[in-house]
Structures
1.
Amino acid sequence: MGVQLPDDRYIPVRPDDLVDALVDDAASLSIGGDDLRALAEGLERVVSQEIEELRRGVDRAYDPHNPARDTLLVGGAEQLATRAAGLGPLVSYLLDKANYESLDDVQLDAALRAANSQGVRIRFEPERLETIELWVRGRTTARRSVRSLRRPIRGQEHEVELYRRLAVVFRAKGEDELNLKLFREIPVADVEALLPHAEVQMGALDRLKVLGGSLGAMGGVLAKLFETTVAATQMLWLAVLALGGLSVRSFLGYRRAKRLRLSQMTHHLYYQNVANNAGVLDQLVASIGNEELKESLLAYLVVRRSGVTSTEELRAEVSRWLDQRFGVAVDFDARDAVQTLERLGLWRDRGAWTLREPAEAIAELQRAWQERRTAGAHLAAAARRE
């Protein structure tokens, strides 16, 4: 069973580039370019305020469980336990809001069974972990060189499926630290190589190389045994020495192959690691801010232009525009965008799918920012997941 790839909700366009593109299309969106930029600036102020509050809350919650923490633990056991209880839901909230999708047990099992990192076979020991979660965002394909029996050195190019981003969240048994790893452009079949406590095993190609060399040496020994005319005891000693040399050769061959695989795996991880632990959370928080800004701006403009009356229609319209304008396939998160517009007070009548006019919406965003009306919205939403 293959891995079921998740839908891609992420919009792979910078907010400023998106605003520029929308200004170019302002006439078709029934809004002036100046109003559109003012609306985007108002949204950015409020969203940035929410994100800064979220950043402080995340830093406070994660610091006691950060493997790289260099500060003292302050607070009683009960207080620290309360903060620890909310950390898991908070991390899940961040990943979901940053448009990552969690791999369920079936998908995770399929990915682990398919694991084969450029010829490396990996053994994973889940019994050493308290919890482990894999989250992915985006998918694509790429041409990669894969070694085979026909081309064991140079390899043969194949099209492989990639996760654009892969987040690994795990806690080892008996430890309080919560580890987070973020990788980019990871082949679906390479997932297991990035998991904690993964160990390199000999692959079929490695065994064939060792066995092939060993058989070659044994063939030479057998030929000498058949050709020789020495006594039986001499033949026996010759066989013992040959088998001893064969064992050493096989062992050394295994060592060389293992070192090569470990070197390849280290190279693979080094260049595709994006962030670790607190750095992962910083990236997620920043991504949430960008996604909230892009989603709410697109939803506001498309609802006003197209007269959509459902989240499904909104999803389809925005996805179509992104495909036409940027050539990207996005499963637009219309539900999240609608909720953001509601939180920011931009609906005139939510039931009738009518929004405030641009001037009124800009004024409403200014008031929301000055009053810090939604500053703690993300932390409150994460707390409701507990």
2.
Amino acid sequence: MDKSELHALISLLDDPDEEVFKQICVKLMSMGADVIPALESAWENSFDSVIQNRIENIIQKIQFDKINRDLKEWARPENQDLLEGALIVAKYQYPDLDEDKLRRQIAQVKQDIWLELNNNLTALEKVRVINHIIFDVHGFSGNTTNYHAPQNSYINNVLETKKGNPLSLSVIYAVIAQDLRIPVYGVNLPDHFILAYVEHSNAISGHDLGDRVLFYINPFSRGWVVSRKEIDAFLKQQRLDPRPEYYDPCSNLDIIRRLLRNLIHSYEKLGYPNKVEELSSMLLSLA
């Protein structure tokens, strides 16, 4: 990146010619995220609201483009780490989030669980340990007051407030369990995301673990253990046919798609069409 060219472009951001400004904008965006510090410095040293607004818009577009690229790269089969996917989505709203801090928060919960585990515990006993540490010791719970708030879908906000929706709590629960080699995976149950505890497996691929589900876990209800019959009853109440995908573990790609759909729904309810459009574009990146 040529610094003199960069500063020359920034100095032209007050050009009244809209076509000239568009060309400058395209050029700055092509330089990528590396130009953001210089743009932020220019914003701080300017007292012109027009220039500040233009800089803000350019920074937002650069950040959004980067998130879309990161999401497309993440969607490659070899890159679909669940925590990484949730962090990329969170950076849409919180581009400067402290990723290391979030990973330390999760590592602390994981460490506290690990100290209570041993090889002699049954699957149910392991889940009771996880539930105790996550919900009793660390105080995580379902956000029943503002259930549809978009903040419930951003993992950094959930880790900070200890409140989330069924999907975000399930993501945190599954990430920790899988790091501890406990086979817990997401299940795309309509209107209420849950988890499945399966017989031990090194990896998940599509729906091939469905026949090995031992029981289900509902993190939104403090890790309540759920049977297949209870899912049958839930689907009957919702007037839905009992499809295999409502019982079988889903992929991390499915989880991040649902995370984006949740956010789209939240912003639709709040009346933010720009965010709905941007998040819909991110969802298309995972098609």
3.
Amino acid sequence: MTEKRPTRDKAEGLTLDRVPAWTLALVPLALIAGALVALLTIGGATLGERRGPPVEDLGVEKTILRPGEIELAVRNVGPEAVDVEQVFVNDTYVDFTESPEAAGPLESQTLTLDYPWQEGSPLLVTMLTSSGATVEHQIEVAVATPEADAGFYGLMALLGTYVGVVPVALGMLFLPFLRGVPERWIRVVMAATVGLLGFLAVDGYLEGAEVAAQSAGAFGGIELLFVGAALAYFTLVALGHSLRGRRDRSEAAGAGGFQLALLVAIGIGLHNLGEGLAIGSAYAIGELALGAFLVVGFALHNTTEGLAIVAPLARNTRPSLARVALLGLIAGGPTILGAVIGASVYNAEVAVFLIGIGIGAIAQVIVQLVPAMRDRAGRALYPASVGGILAGIAILYVTGLVVSA
């Protein structure tokens, strides 16, 4: 005897399982919006009068020094409006103009101070608000801010060329020589590259943390370093998988070596964009030593990228010089773009984010290089590779001493 299944009546047929899933989200969203509107309109009245002094906080985001003038871009990072009444520089009252006259929460304003500062001297700027609160900003060494003119951006383009285009081209030129080098020494070179990049990532983190401590904190500080690193790392991982899949499909379909090399060059160009951002932002925030350090480190690394680009070309006929130059430009050109963009950013928080992008790109490159340093037994760490890693660290350590000298 078969068991009869219960049938639904008409009222039971109108259940939630027939309602589209996306419409179910409208009810909680409407309740959340209503609750927020209620808090904004009548919530404050139910809390009574707030006692205590006003909560005022200003953060200096940008400092520009011109002859006889100091310009500060400040942001209100507190919950109440802030109006600057007086400004002192090294305990001396100075005339100033402000635009706008007051800053609401998260709003910014520009203070222009009339002060005959002397180059090389420290400056302590003290801002007195209408409530009597004081906010201090220390300028360690007074130096005229360089104008972001065509010459400055030309320097960024030149740095991008040094870091991206030239090293990749040099890596391509060394390919015939490396064909005759034993494979074990190639693995040692890859291990040294991993070492110098790891050292560079640590140095970038330390510098990013220092810049984050100087930011206003309105939109985050050190958190932006990790956000930028994670965004760059996972984005490049996803793009790398996509390009690798296209490369495998092209190879299975019998595509030419130039097409495979082009896909590799596109992937490397994405990495170099993050490298250019890190270098440009370092120069933009005034950390010239970090910028030069990054230039040397990335240039040493990018010479190995040229080998990865021309490797697919070795299996086919020699391509034309124009095609090889195109591959080098695709791989190294984004470094120029990144340096120009990074140099245009003078906000400390955005600079931290861009440095984080550079760190994420470094980490992703290290992950890609580790398989290339494995020995025939599949080990990533063995005496030769450990020696290569330590050699890479030593190279950048000595380079840092030379740059800072």
